[in-house]
Specification:
Number of helices: 16
Number of domains: 2
Radius of gyration: 29 Å
CATH architecture of the largest domain: Orthogonal Bundle
Oligomer: single chain
CATH class of the largest domain: Mainly Alpha
CATH topology of the largest domain: MetI-like fold
Shape: flat
Structural class: mainly alpha
Order of helices and strands: HHHHHHHHHHHHHHHH
């Protein structure tokens, strides 16, 4: 039997690594590292005020402004939270209930109204639809301060000053943005679903309620989270339209607490932490749907 030649018997040698590939890989690693470091730095900057508020809530007032800064309370004053809840002249639970009622009312109204109008612009055919849609979006360009005085006079003539109707109705002023967002979602839903439902005899309202709303649930959660967030911290509108201290939401109640006597910063910070907790809980509970809705908003339509 003939012997194999040396070139045929030996395995092929591996080609040397290209220097360009190694440099490109190193550049990608450096870019990724720089990106993560930048995100970490931005995260620290954004969380630093909340951390300062949290540790201030666990200190005495005399320890908050000492130099050098104490980055950890020693010892932690957990009783500041109970003192803030029961402080004389500061009905925290009453203010909390007012904020909850105010924010939930605006949120429910915003979700229902934006969904109904967005569905109409996306799925219904009627004369002047595009003109009405453009006019709806154009209201976003009008500064709220321009309509402030006419709106105040209108509510005064209706006898609604001193009630929650003006803050709730004015809380819907961001609805054109959500109408546009939900319209994009409804446009992305297959027309075959609604056509099949109409063939089966379903009314337009039933199609909207039982078919369309479940399909755009992530978007509805985004609308609800944003509406609740913006309303919970609203300060100016309740300040103008509410007259009784018992009606104040938390933002206005904290301001009144600050101005009524010498500021007790430890209790002020403790009350601020308690006022922020509902927003954190809501976001953590709705995080999956919230992120899904935000990401889908950019690819629908």
């Amino acid at each position: 039997m003939a012997h194999l030649s040396h070139s045929e018997a030996s395995p092929p040698l591996a080609e040397p690594a290209t220097p360009g590939l190694g440099r490109a890989r190193s550049q990608r690693v450096l870019v990724s590292l720089a990106r993560h470091l930048l995100l970490l730095a931005v995260t620290v900057v954004l969380l630093l005020p909340f951390y300062w508020m949290l540790i201030s809530a666990l200190k005495e007032t005399s320890q908050i402004f000492v130099q050098p800064i104490q980055w950890w309370p020693d010892p932690p004053r957990w009783d500041n939270f109970s003192r803030a809840l029961s402080y004389p002249g500061f009905p925290f639970l009453r203010f909390f209930g007012n904020s909850l009622f105010y924010a939930l009312s605006v949120t429910v109204g915003m979700v229902l109204m934006s969904a109904l109008v967005g569905y109409g612009f996306a799925r219904l055919r009627f004369p002047g639809r595009q003109v009405l849609f453009v006019c709806t979006l154009a209201t976003l360009m009008i500064p709220s301060i321009v309509t402030f005085i006419p709106t105040y006079v209108l509510f005064k003539q209706l006898g609604l000053l001193g009630s929650y109707w003006p803050p709730i109705l004015l809380g819907l002023r961001f609805s054109p943005f959500f109408i546009f967002m939900l319209r994009q979602f409804f446009l992305g839903v297959s027309w075959e679903l609604s056509d099949a439902a109409r063939v089966d005899g379903a009314s337009e309202l039933r199609i909207f309620w039982q078919i369309m709303l479940p399909l755009v649930r992530p978007a509805l959660i985004v609308v609800g989270v944003f509406s609740f967030l913006w309303t919970w911290h609203e300060f100016f509108i309740p300040l103008v339209y509410l007259t009784e201290r018992e009606q104040f939401p938390l933002a206005l109640g904290l301001f009144a607490f600050k101005n009524q006597r010498t500021v007790e910063w430890d209790l002020m910070m403790a009350a601020s932490v308690l006022a922020t907790l509902p927003l954190i809980v809501i976001f953590l509970c709705a995080q999956r749907y919230f992120l899904q809705g935000v990401s889908m908003t950019g690819i629908k339509g």
